[in-house]
Amino acid sequence: MRWKIVLSYFGTSYCGWQRQPESPSVQQTLEEALSMVLRQQVDITGCGRTDTGVHARYYVAHTDIEGVEPSDKLIYQLNAVLPGDIAIHAISQADPSFHARFDAFERQYKYFIHFKKDPFSAGRSFWFHSHEGPDRDAMHRAAAVLLEFDRFQPFCKTGSDAEHFKCMMKESNWHFD
Q1: Which of 45-54, 114-123, 160-169 has the lowest mean pLDDT?
Q2: Half-sphere exposure (Cβ direction) of 65: Cα atoms closer than 13 Å
Q3: Domain limits of the chain?
Q4: Which active-site residues does the annotation give?
Q5: What digits encode the pLDDT tens for the residues 25-55?
Q6: Distance, C-alpha 163 to centroid of its chain
Q7: Which CATH class for the 2-94 domain?
């Protein structure tokens, strides 16, 4: 049975989503927790890769599990053994053809910058070290430039097997508050 898993994670302690030989990853941590709770080997496919330190608010993955039904009790058990920076929100049965990566139709990325030193923003935001404030107009112009392009090969992994690098960017802007 194919499962769809919805989770979020705070990526500061991880080398990203994808399993790496020498560093802890979100995928590895989740696979180990599922394997322990279900007492069977579990392999998970995620909707995409994230880099070291990147957080995900709504991340979708899939796995194939036999002999176990997804349930609220299972979500509770997994969240009890997962570290505090990874949370399972939902597990549901999915169509056998569902693929977390290839069925994703939209992604949203948010980058946070703070302009004053703030220890509570560490790990959640980049600190822009400057005695001058940001040039907001220049930042808006730079964000708008991205909307002029529809191919983003430089953002793909080296040697990507993607058939194309076309992407429709819907929005690129800065919010200041």
Answers
A1: 160-169
A2: 26
A3: 2-94, 110-177
A4: 51
A5: 999 999 999 999 999 999 999 998 888 888 9
A6: 22
A7: alpha beta
